[in-house]
Amino acid sequence: MSFVARPFAVVLSALVGGSWLLSTSCHSAMEGPDAEAERPDASLAAASDAASPDAAQDTAKAAGGPCPADMVYVDTEFCPKVERECLEVETDNPNHLKICHEYAKGKQKCLTATERRQFCIDPYEYPNQKGAHPAWNATWYEAQASCKSKGKRLCWGSEWTAACEGPEHTPFPYGWKRDHDICNIDSLYINPEKKGGGFLFSSKDPEVRHAELSRLDQSVPSGSMPGCKSGFGVYDQTGNFDEWGISDEKPIEKSRWAALKGGAWGHVRNQCRPASHNHMPEEWYYFWSFRCCKDAEGAPVWHPPADAGNVPAPEVEAKDFFPEPIVAKNAPGPSKRKYDYREEKRRKALMGTRAERKP
Hints:
This protein is α+β, with helices and mostly antiparallel strands. The protein has a single domain (20-357), classed as Alpha-Beta Complex (paralog of FGE (formylglycine-generating enzyme)). The protein has helices at residues 53-63, 140-149, 157-165, 206-216, 341-357, and strands spanning 20-23, 72-78, 82-90, 99-110, 115-121, 153-154, 194-195, 198-199, 242-246, 258-261, 275-276, 288-290, 292-295.
C-alpha cells in the first residue's frame, strides 16, 4: 500500500518451528488493506492552541514521583537483541509476514549487554484516558506535536518495546503465546472506499471523513480489554491501533526517524519487538495512532548510542491535533470471526485436493 503525505505546518528470533529467531526491532511488510490516500487540505486534523507543557510539569511534581500522575514509571533492564525459540510460526498470510504464534516459555538469550532504562509512558493510547476512543488517522508529526502539547514526547522504539515486554521480558505483553481473545487483533478487515480517486477517510469534507473513519473503525475503548496489559500496566500495545514512535535504529526502508509499533486490529505482527518502517512520517492512515512517553525525573536522559546510525527526529511545535473526544458513529468494532491461519491453511489444502480430483 502506498500513501501520500499530509501537509503539516508546525515542523520546526527464534528457532522457527525448531529454528532460532533473532528479535530486535524487526521491520514488517506493508499491513492492512492495500490503499493509497489522497492529499487533503490542512484542515483534515483539527488543531487547538498549544497546551502548556508547564502544566504537565506541575502534574509531575504533584504526583510526588518520577512520572506525572497519568503515566506509568518503567525501570527495567532492556536487551537490545534477544534470541527466542519459536514453537509455531506462520509464513503464509495476507500480509506476507512471518508471525510467531508461540515461543518457548523462558527460553531466551540476550546477545548484547543489557541497558538500564528508566522512563515514563502513558498507560493508554492518546488521549491517555481509560474508556476513551484513541486518536486516529494521525501522522507522525501530529502525534509528536500532540505529545509535546502535554509536556511529553513520542516514545523511542526501545522504550515502547521495554514497556510492552514488562519486567518478565515476554514477547507479548500478556505472555509467550499469541491470543486474539486477550488483545484486539486478527479482525477481518473492512476495505476503505474510494470516490474520485481518493479514499473517503482522507476527504476534505469533515462529515464524509468522519463517517468513513467510523465505518472502518474496529477498535475498542482504551483499557477495555483487561488482559491486554503488560507487566508494567500499559494497555493495548499489541493491536487496537498501530502506534507512531521514534526509531532509535539505522533507517530501514523510508520511515527515516519514524516507526509504527504494535500493529492494529487486523492479522499483523502484534508483538512487542517488531516495527513497521515502510511509511514516511508525513503519511497517515485510518488505524494509526500513538501514545506518549517522557523522561523520568531524576533519571539519566537516554539517547541512542553513537553507532546506532539513527536519523534524529526534527523539532516540532507543541499543538494538540486531537483536542476533542472522538465519538465514532455506528462503528462495527472488532469482527466476530477472527482470522485463523490454521483454518485458512486447511481451506487452501481442501481446495487443492478438490482441484486435483477434477477430470
